[in-house]
Design brief:
Number of strands: 26
Distance between the termini: 25 Å
Strand order of the largest sheet: 11-16-15-14-12-13
Number of helices: 18
Largest sheet: 6 strands, mixed
Bound molecules: beta-D-glucopyranose
Structural class: alpha/beta
Radius of gyration: 26 Å
Shape: globular
C-alpha cells in the first residue's frame, strides 16, 4: 500500500536531560532487543518481557523514556533505571529546521516549502534536517507541522503547508520520508483541528464528522499513509468538547480507520488526565512526568480505570517505533558536530527559497533590466542585516518566538537581500542605494532618484499569538504606497508568514511573495529579481482581498469562538464546514486577490487538449498539453481539480493532482496526471464522507486543469 509513490500520480527540545549511554559493563550482544537480525516487533516484545512494571512506565513519558539512566524527576517522581541497552533519545522542535540550535541550516519556513509543490525537494530538505539533527545529538524531530488553513489569522500558518488536504498531506509525507531516511524519527503535528493560537489550550473546535474527516483528518491520513511517521502529536485544543489527547478519535480515527501504527505523543502540557488519556490512545506524555507518573498509573490500574494491556500496548508502540526508526542501532554522536550546516544543505535552503517564492503580479518590470550606471533603491528594514527599530532581515529569516530566542532558527549565516542585490547589481555595473523606510519622505526620495525601486514589506507570525489583521506590519502599507507613488517602476517583495491584504496593489506593477526565506533569502531573491532564476512557486493558500472575505470573518462564533460567562472553554464553531480555503471562495463566489495555486513565471504557458481516460479498471488518466509560449525556460506547476456530482453536496472542486513541468521556449509537452486506483482510494481523491463512511458517488464529474485553481481547461467523465 505504501509503495505507491513509485507510481507517482503526482510526478512527482525539549529539555531532555542527558543520560549516559548503556554502561560499559552491559553486554548488548546477548540482549535480544539489541539484536538487529530480529524483527522490530520481536525486539520490542523481548524488551517488555524483561521489564519490570515501572521500567515499562518509563516509555510512557518523554524524559524517562529517553534518558534511560536518570531515575528522579521533579515532584519526587522516581523510576528504576531502564533495562540495559536502550538508547538515549533527544527530541527537538521543529518543522522549519533544528530549532534553537547553533550550527544548523536556517531553511525557509514550511509554508515556503509548500509553495514549491515539489515533493522530491521536500524530501531532500527533510533528509538534510534529519542529518543535521543527528549530528547535533537529536534523534526525534517534532516535524512536519500541518493544519488545514482555516483562517489566515492563525499564528502558526508559516509552520504549516497551506489549505489543501492533498498538497499538505503529500508534502508532509515527503518531508517525513526525508527525515526518516536518517536515524531520526518524525512526529507529525498537531492532531487535530488545531487552527488557532488564541486560547489554544482552552478552546473546543466543534465540527461535524464529514468536515473533520475531509478537511482536518485527511491531510494527516495522507501524510501517514504515504510518509509513515513514527509519531503523531496530539494537539492542545478540544474537539467537540473533549481534549485532543484524550479524545476517542485517537483510537477510532487515527489508529483505527487511518491505521496509524506508531506512537501518539502529547504536546507540551496538552495532557489533562491519566486514565482517559491512556484509554483513548495517548502513548507518551511530552516532557517530564505529570499525568503518566508511576504513582498515577499504579493508582489508575488498581482502580480498574486502565488495564495492563493498555500500558503494555502504549509502551510497545513507543519501543517498536524507536527500533523501526533505527534509534536502538544508531547511537547519537558522543560529541555533537559543531557546524552541521553543509554547503549541500545550504543549497537546499536556497533552492526552496527560490522555488517557493511566488510571483504574484508582474506588469513588465521583472526581471530587472539593469544597465551600467543605473541605480536601484532597496527600501525597507527587512532588506538589511542592520536593524531599524529592532527589525532586520533576521526578523523574517524564520518564525518569531518568545522565551529568550527572538527566532526559531538562529540564521547565523544569513545573507541579506540588500547584500545580494548590491553584489548582483555591481556585476551589471549598477549601484544600489539603501533606505530603511523609517521615514516616508526619505524613502520616497530614494525611490524617485533611482531607476527602479525594490520595497520590502513584512508580517511576523508565529506560535502563541494569532495575527490581529492581515496588514503589513511596521507601517509597511504606507511605505509601499509612498515608494510606488514616487517611482512607477516599483517591485514589492513580501516577507510574510501568511496572506496579507494589498491596498496598494493597483499602484505597484510587480509583487514577489518570498515568505520567511531562511538564511539564503538574499541570493534567492536577487536571482529571482534579476532573472537568473525564473519564479515557479504557486500559492498554497488563498490571498483574500480583505480579511472580511475569509471563511471565518463576520461571525465571532466561527472565529475566535465564544466563551460563555463562567465557562472555561471557548467554543469555536466550524460551521463553514467544508468551505475552507479556495473551497470557500469558489462556493461563495468571492473573488480572491490571488487564488490558491496562483503564481506567475517570466515565461508564459498555454494549456490545451485535455482528455480524461479511464483504463476500465478504476484508474484515471488526465492528459493535456502545455506549451511554453514565452522567451525563457520555465517551470509550471500544472494543477488538476475535480468537481464531484452535485448530489454529494461538495462546495467546490478539489485538487486531485499536479505536475511540475520544465519547458524550453517554444517547447510543447503532453502531460499526464495519473490517478491510480490505489491513489483514488487511499487519498480519497473522488470520495466524500457519508454516514456509511467514504463513498464514491455515481454521476458526472468535471475535470479542471490549469496553472491555478482558476483553471483553463475542462472535461467531464461519468462514474457508473
Ligand atoms: C508546540 C509544539 C512544540 C512543543 C515543543 C509546543 O508549544 O505547540 O509544536 O513541538 O511546544 O517545543
Amino acid at each position: 500500500m505504501r509503495k505507491l509513490l513509485a507510481v507517482l500520480l503526482l510526478p512527482l527540545s525539549l529539555v531532555a536531560v542527558p543520560a549516559g549511554p548503556a554502561k560499559a559493563a552491559d553486554d548488548c550482544s546477548a540482549v535480544p532487543w539489541a539484536d538487529k537480525r530480529k524483527s522490530p516487533e520481536r525486539r520490542a516484545q523481548a524488551l517488555l518481557a524483561a521489564s519490570t512494571q515501572h521500567q515499562k512506565y518509563r516509555w510512557l513519558v518523554e524524559q524517562p523514556a529517553n534518558s534511560p539512566q536518570q531515575t528522579t524527576w521533579a515532584g519526587g517522581v522516581v523510576y528504576p533505571v531502564q533495562v540495559p541497552c536502550t538508547p538515549t533519545v533527544v527530541y527537538s522542535d521543529g518543522p522549519d529546521g533544528v530549532r534553537f540550535t547553533p550550527g544548523v541550516t536556517a531553511f525557509p519556513a514550511t509554508i515556503a516549502t509548500a509553495a514549491t509543490w515539489n515533493q522530491p525537494l521536500a524530501y531532500v530538505k527533510g533528509a538534510a534536517q534529519g542529518t543535521e539533527a543527528h549530528d547535533k545529538g537529536k534523534n526525534v524531530l517534532l516535524a512536519p507541522g500541518l493544519a488545514s488553513g482555516r483562517t489566515p489569522l492563525s499564528g502558526r500558518t508559516p509552520e504549516y503547508l497551506g489549505e489543501d488536504p492533498l498538497l499538505t498531506g503529500l508534502m508532509a509525507a515527503a518531508g517525513t520520508r526525508g527525515i526518516q531516511s536518517t536515524p531520526v524519527l518524525a512526529a507529525l503535528k498537531h492532531y487535530v483541528a488545531n487552527e488557532q493560537e488564541l486560547d489554544r489550550q482552552t478552546s473546543s473546535s466543534n465540527a461535524d464528522e464529514r468536515t473533520l474527516r475531509q478537511i482536518y483528518d485527511l491531510p494527516f491520513e495522507i501524510a501517514i499513509d504515504r510518509g509513515q511517521p513514527a509519531s503523531v502529536m496530539c494537539s492542545y485544543n478540544q474537539i467537540n468538547g473533549t481534549y485532543a489527547c484524550e479524545n476517542p478519535r485517537l483510537n477510532d480515527v487515527l489508529k483505527g480507520s487511518i491505521g496509524f501504527d506508531g506512537y501518539v505523543m502529547s504536546d507540551f502540557g496538552s495532557v489533562h488526565s491519566t486514565a482517559a488519556s491512556l484509554v483513548n490512545g495517548l502513548d507518551q506524555e511530552l516532557n517530564r512526568p505529570i499525568w503518566f507518573t508511576p504513582a498515577r498509573l499504579d493508582a489508575a490500574l488498581a482502580a480498574g480505570e486502565i488495564t495492563q494491556r493498555q500500558i503494555d500496548a502504549a509502551a510497545f508502540r513507543v519501543i517498536v517505533s524507536y527500533i523501526r526508526g533505527g534509534l536502538f542501532d544508531n547511537p547519537l554522536p558522543a560529541t555533537p558536530v559543531e557546524d552541521a550546516s553543509t554547503a549541500a544543505h545550504k543549497a537546499v535552503a536556497r533552492e526552496i527559497a527560490e522555488q517557493g517564492s511566488v510571483l504574484l503580479k508582474n506588469d513588465n518590470v521583472l526581471p530587472l533590466k539593469v544597465k551600467r550606471g543605473d541605480t536601484i533603491a532597496v527600501i525597507g528594514p527587512t532588506a538589511s542585516s542592520t536593524p531599524t527599530n529592532g527589525i532586520s532581515a533576521n526578523s523574517v529569516c524564520s518564525l518569531p518566538w518568545r522565551f529568550g530566542n527572538p527566532q526559531t532558527l538562529q540564521c547565523e549565516d544569513l545573507i541579506s537581500p540588500e547584500t545580494s542585490i548590491r553584489d548582483r547589481a555591481a556585476r551589471a555595473g549598477a549601484t544600489v542605494t539603501f533606505d530603511n523606510g523609517s521615514d516616508l519622505v526619505s524613502a520616497a526620495a530614494a525611490a524617485k532618484a533611482a531607476d527602479v525601486a525594490v520595497v520590502f514589506g513584512y508580517q511576523r507570525a508565529g506560535e502563541f499569538n494569532d495575527l490581529a489583521d492581515l496588514r503589513l506590519q511596521g507601517g509597511g502599507d504606507a511605505l509601499v504606497a509612498a515608494v510606488a507613488a514616487a517611482n512607477p517602476r516599483t517591485v514589492a517583495v513580501l516577507q510574510t508568514g501568511s496572506a496579507v491584504e494589498m491596498p496598494w496593489i493597483g499602484d505597484v506593477p510587480a509583487v514577489l511573495e518570498t515568505w520567511y526565506g531562511g538564511e539564503q533569502m538574499g541570493p534567492a531573491i536577487a536571482a529571482l529579481l534579476f532573472g537568473d532564476a525564473n519564479p515557479s512557486g504557486k500559492l498554497p493558500m488563498t490571498f483574500p482581498r480583505s480579511l472580511a472575505d475569509t471563511p471565518t470573518a463576520n461571525d465571532p462564533a466561527r472565529y475566535p469562538g465564544v466563551r460563555a460567562e463562567g465557562e472555561a472553554i471557548r467554543q469555536v464553531s466550524y460551521s463553514e464546514g467544508l468551505k475552507v480555503g479556495y473551497r470557500w471562495y469558489e462556493a461563495e463566489d468571492i473573488a480572491p486577490l490571488f487564488a490558491f495555486g496562483h503564481g506567475l513565471s517570466y515565461t508564459t504557458f498555454r494549456y490545451s487538449d485535455l482528455e480524461t481516460r479511464g483504463d476500465g479498471r478504476g484508474e484515471l488518466r488526465l492528459r493535456f498539453r502545455i506549451a511554453n509560449t514565452g522567451k525563457r525556460t520555465g517551470t509550471e506547476v500544472a494543477q488538476a481539480y475535480v468537481s464531484l456530482p452535485a448530489a454529494t453536496g461538495e462546495p467546490s472542486k478539489r485538487l486531485v493532482g499536479w505536475s511540475r513541468v520544465t519547458l524550453k521556449p517554444g517547447e510543447t509537452r503532453t502531460v499526464e496526471i495519473r490517478l491510480a486506483r490505489a491513489d483514488l482510494k487511499d487519498l480519497h481523491l473522488l470520495e466524500y464522507w457519508s454516514s456509511q463512511g467514504w463513498k464514491t458517488a455515481t454521476g458526472s464529474y468535471t475535470v479542471h486543469v490549469g496553472g491555478s485553481s482558476r483553471t483553463a481547461l475542462r472535461d467531464t467523465f461519468r462514474v457508473r
